[in-house]
Amino acid sequence: MLVGRAPSRFVPFLLRYRYIAIAVALNIPGNSVVGGDGGIAFAAGASRLFSFPLYLLAVVIGVSPVVILFLIFGPSILG
User: Fold this and answer.
1) Each residue of 44-62: b (16+ CB within 10 Å) or e?
2) In whole angstroms, how far apart are CA 78 and each of 11, 37, 69, 73, 75?
3) Is 58 within 8 Å of 22 (Cβ atoms)?
4) Backbone region of residue 35 per phi and psi (left: phi > 0; alpha: psi in -120 to 50; beta: other values)
5) pLDDT at 49 over 90
6) pTM attached to this predicted model
7) CA 58 to CA 26: how far, in whole Å?
8) pLDDT for position 5
9) For residues 47 and 40, is the Cβ–Cβ distance under 8 A?
10) 20-43: per-residue pLDDT in tens?
11) Residue 18 burial by CB count (10 A; 0-12/13-18/19+): exposed, middle or buried?
């Protein structure tokens, strides 16, 4: 249903770069609308468009900027 209503020029782009799209979706503000990261992961798994190892790699790359910031600056970055 979503693919049928989506603009035709965006669907092929998102399907071609779906792992990049999932990594970006995990980091955008407001992803809590679809259930946060767990909701995004559930939707990705239910769609069966992602292989688990590549999905896991996309998640690792997607969340790595936060981890790197903590490694460099420590917990003092929060406050």
Assistant:
1) beeeeebeeeebeebbeeb
2) 38, 21, 10, 9, 6
3) yes
4) left
5) no
6) 0.67
7) 10
8) 74
9) no
10) 888 888 888 777 777 788 888 898
11) middle
